[in-house]
Design a protein that fits this description.
169 residues; mainly alpha; 8 helices; 49% helix; binds zinc ion
């Protein structure tokens, strides 16, 4: 698994609620353009994180125990093992194009939302399949058989770096 991080802009404060970004707009776009589209296409989840205020670093906030999350992941893996039992695919990430068409077809509302998102964000064919695979996994984690608009919407959110104007507010 590849995990990578980058600053949102040269000064590092774009999107920071506490410190203003001092970069010129053109400068931010040139900075973000350094990461190529084909590379971003291959990264499944883009997540923007804002800085954690100092006082929050040591605070014990109620969070879901890792054991619960683990149970969901194990259950989702089992669903995938069942789905691909008769094939040479092992998990959602390894699905080929025809598997995506077969196993990730969203319901009508999900398809409509996907179409709108693709048109608005100008997603590539590769990113389109990634969205569907991630939506399938989100549905699996929720224990749901059908990929719905909710799952598609969450998956589309993870393509934030594909959006033109990312980091501009
Ligand atoms: Zn900046």
């Amino acid at each position: 698994m590849l995990v990578a991080s980058m600053n949102p802009c040269p000064c590092g404060h774009a999107g920071d609620p506490h410190k203003p970004c001092v970069c010129a707009p053109g400068q931010v776009q040139r900075y973000l353009a350094k990461v190529s589209g084909p590379l971003l296409d291959r990264i499944d989840l883009h997540v923007e994180v804002t800085p954690v205020p100092f006082d929050d670093l040591n605070r014990d906030r109620p969070a879901e125990p890792s054991e619960n999350v683990r149970q969901r992941v194990v259950a989702a893996r089992e669903r995938q093992a069942e789905r691909f039992a008769e094939t040479d695919t092992h998990c959602n990430a390894h699905m080929r194009a025809r598997d995506v068409r077969r196993y990730c077809k969203p319901d009508a509302a999900g398809q409509q939302l996907l179409k709108a998102a693709i048109e608005r964000l100008g997603l590539s064919a590769r990113a389109h399949d990634r969205v569907l695979k991630v939506a399938r996994t989100i549905a699996d984690l929720a224990g749901e058989e059908t990929v719905t608009a909710t799952h598609v919407a969450e998956a589309v959110q993870y393509r934030s770096l594909d959006r033109s104007g990312w980091g501009m507010g």
